[in-house]
Amino acid sequence: MKHVIRLRGAIFDMDGTILDSMPCWETVGLRYLLDRRIPVPDVDALARRLKTTTLPQAAQLYREEFGITDSITCICADITAMIARDYRETAPLKPHVPEMLQRMQDAGVRMCIATATDRKLAEAALTRLGVLRYFRFVHTCQELHTSKQKPDIFDRSVQRLGTSKADTVVFEDALHAAQTAAHAGYRVVGIYDDSAKAEREQIKPLCTCYLDDWDELEIEQDEPALVGP
Question: Is the dihedral of CA 211, 213, 216, 220 positive or negative?
Fold first, then answer.
């Protein structure tokens, strides 16, 4: 099914939206243990437990239940390094993202990234994959001292894009971020990701449209009436 939207500004989440990076996070705990030749009797049970833990909590779990003797600080550093390698070397784009970004560029849409991921990792992945050039800037929650529980990152992004809120669309895969943007008055387009499968039916009512794949999106060109340079 094709969805046609008209927009002048686009604010893209990264992980799970344009970058297929959520499997990196979901499997890093298992990979950490297997790299150390530690058997994991129940992979699914480990994944469920790690889904709701912080990194230090996961590190404590490895010490208590899997016999890791490294300090929590050392374990956290090792896992962070694994994730960094994923962004720099392997995490792929989601299908049809380059074609979608090119269509938006051809239509004169102003685009940016608004992500909770560290800037260095975000830019490393987007540069490696050849799509950083489509975005005017990258905003991170860390640098703006905020989270996507608040609309700050979206508001700062639309101001910097020089578009109006009414003409700007926020693209998200996660329920909490879609709720924040929608409640702040933005049009939201949802994109399916396996990591947010359970939230899918809750996200849909918040969205102008909901995409199972990026090739479902068509851009209706319009004469831009932008409010900035």
Answer: positive
Distance in angstroms (rounded) separating the CA atoms of residues 176 and 196: 11
**Tally of CA atoms within 13 A in the half-sphere of 28 that contains its CB:** 25
Residue with structure tokens 């102003």?
110
Separation of alpha carbons 83 and 71, rounded Å: 19
pLDDT of 55 higher than 70: yes
- pLDDT, the chain, mean: 93
- Taking the C-alpha atoms of residue 95 and residue 56, their distance in angstroms, rounded to an integer, is 33
Write out the two tokens for 165: 């809120």
Burial of 31 (0-12, 13-18, 19+ CB in 10 A): middle
CA distances (Å), origin 160, targets 2, 138, 153, 154, 216: 30, 11, 11, 10, 28
**Per-residue pLDDT band at 54 (split at 50, 70, 90):** confident
**Any residues with CB less than 8 A from the CB of 225 and at least 6 apart, and which?**
8, 167
Longest Cα separation, the chain: 63
